[in-house]
Amino acid sequence: MKTLMLLRHAKSSWDDLTLPDAERPLNERGVRDAPRIGNWMYQQKLKRPDALVCSPAVRTRQTMKLIVQAAGIQCPARLDERIYQAGVPDLLDVIGDTPETCDCLMLIGHNPGISELLDHLTNEQHSMPTAALAIIKLEATMWLDITAKTNRLTRFIKPRDLED
């Protein structure tokens, strides 16, 4: 069985409306929330991802850096343009390109795609607020064989669920 971690980027800034969407950085709340999720991952002694795939948008790259540092994640990371503004088919393509030697993949992206992928894979409705993390046990033994609605959501955490 494979494990998929879905992470929505942390809260981004709208202070500079002249910036293209992909260039928007995290705001103060985002800079605070991303490490909180990473610290939670570390404290829970969760299995660390074997690989990490991230949207190239500034806010997702910043989220990735903060999560990786706080959680002590040490795995290969790559940026993939397909994640930015992706729907479920594109995200499944990205996941399908994961080497089979990887048992646990973390995907960092955007809504609505991340929420839609979670719903698609688990047949459960969950809102993925910023910096939310969903951990899914997949029925598939190969990344290309992932099917809808047969997987189990094992963990779901949002920054507001964590104590200050």
What is the 3D form? globular
Put simply, the count of helices is 4
Helix content: 25-40%
Might you state the CATH topology name? Answer: Rossmann fold
CA-CA gap between termini:
34 Å
Strand order of the largest sheet: 3-2-4-1-5-6
The assigned CATH architecture is 3-Layer(aba) Sandwich
Order of helices and strands: EHEHEHEHEE
CATH superfamily: Phosphoglycerate mutase-like
Question: What's the total number of strands?
Answer: 6
Low-confidence stretches: none
The helix/strand class is: alpha/beta
**How many domains, in number, for the residues?**
1
Residue share in β-strands? 15-25%
Walk me through this protein's architecture:
The structure is a single chain. The chain has about 160 residues and is α/β, with parallel strands linked by helices. The protein has one domain: Rossmann fold (3-Layer(aba) Sandwich), CATH 3.40.50. It has helices at about 30-45, 60-70, 90-95, 115-120; strands spanning about 1-10, 50-55, 75-80, 105-110, 135-140, 150-155. The protein has a 6-stranded mixed β-sheet, with helices on both faces. Helix 1 (about 30-45) runs parallel beside helix 2 (about 60-70). The chain is globular, with a radius of gyration of 15 Å. The termini are far apart. The mean pLDDT is about 95.
Give a nutshell description of this structure.
This protein is of the alpha/beta class.
